[in-house]
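In keeping with the milestone schedule agreed at the kick-off meeting, the structural modelling team has produced records for the first pair of proteins. Each record is given below as a sequence line and a structure-token line. The laboratory manager (R.T.) confirmed that both were archived under the project's standard naming scheme.
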Amino acid sequence: MQIDFYADLICPWCHLGWRRLHAALAQRPQLSFVVHWKPYQLNPDVPVTGIDRQEYLLRKFGNAERVREVLHAVESALRSEGMDVNLHRIKTTSNTYLGHRLMMLAQELGKTDTLLNEFFVAYFIQGQDIGDPHILKALADKAGLPAASAHELLSSHAPHPGIQRSEQLARQLNIRAVPYVLFDGKYSIAGAHDPVAFVPLIELSQMGV
């Protein structure tokens, strides 16, 4: 079974959805599957240096009260899954293009989970700017990615073929929000649902319906 997981690195619901998807897959230990990380930039127009976090949140949600409500909902959802989080430490909404380039390398090397966890810790716990090439180099090193390959990827914002393909497929699928999970190219579900919500789609894919 091929599972395509469209997501962005600064999306807390994507990290939660990734965890819940794998919890659902763990309920089918006999299942043979491959999960592909599919890059999706929620904010492709954000400058490479990022933008002020509060400015971004106010622009996105309209007012301070709504921002507080959204952040509380995010924190509650993540903590309910045992995921530590310090959203108040985030000062910059990062451009994630370079981060996705690293994720493409990690996926080739079978280190997707390792690097994704490093991104979560760096951004949602430590509040680091994960668009900063210096921080990204450190995360790549922590995840055990080859230094030369990682540094080459981080030296340019030139189009990456894997990211281009993912963006093209996302447009064809009319994806407007992430996480978005596609099973065997047939069955999809959007959002960070509880593991039980993924099970029917897994079963349909197994039956080859």
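The second protein of the pair:
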Amino acid sequence: MTISTIIFDLDDTLLWDKKSIAEAFRLTCEEAAEKLGETIDFSQLEEDVRAAARTLYEAYPVYAYTQMIGINPFEGLWGDFDDPTPQFQEMKELVPSYRRDAWTNGLRSYGIEDAALGAYLGEYFVAARKRSPFLYKETFEVLEQLKEKYQLVLLTNGAPSLQNTKLEITPELVPYFDHIIISGDFGKGKPDASIFDHVLKTANITAEEGIMVGDNLMTDILGSSRINMKNVWINRENKEPSPIVTPTFEIDDLKQLQQIVTSI
């Protein structure tokens, strides 16, 4: 059956989220050096803060919920999570201390004991991430080519407030999509089959009429496979294949997508 609908993941498929987070860390470490008046090994401090953030994040009671919805520790470092579910409200209460403690503990691991600086950098990181949106250079070119011929759906894991913030700071993306579905609104995240069934109902298509495009084998590709939907793994970083998840197609540049969908 001919493909009528292309479903895109957002983070690290269209938006270059890893680069945005890395840039926010760089800017914040730069600010730390300026405040301290000394040279800092940015990569080491970033590594220490990332490790501290993971340790804190995994200990919170709400951690299982974040895993189910699809929110990683570094999104917790800049999101406000002002969303209606009790779990998101719990996160909203947690994140100010989480940001403070992640940076304070990271500084301590690096060898700097300064709680006031940790608190300051925790908030500085939020602003730094918001002013560091990056997209892949081919994103708009590919969406422009596809928009006239296909229904386009954005399917993203995460908190609605945070994913919508990402879209607000990259407003050119939104008009390309007929539907935008966020796991936090639905209640379950990829790879749960139910959110893919929800996409089919929202877009009014069958699984055979859609194709999922994403960078994550264990969410985008596994989830779409569970409803027998074709999928495309965008593997820009030459990652090793998975022994348990096999994509229908694999590409390393979004520009290769049009040839795939027109050949099906």
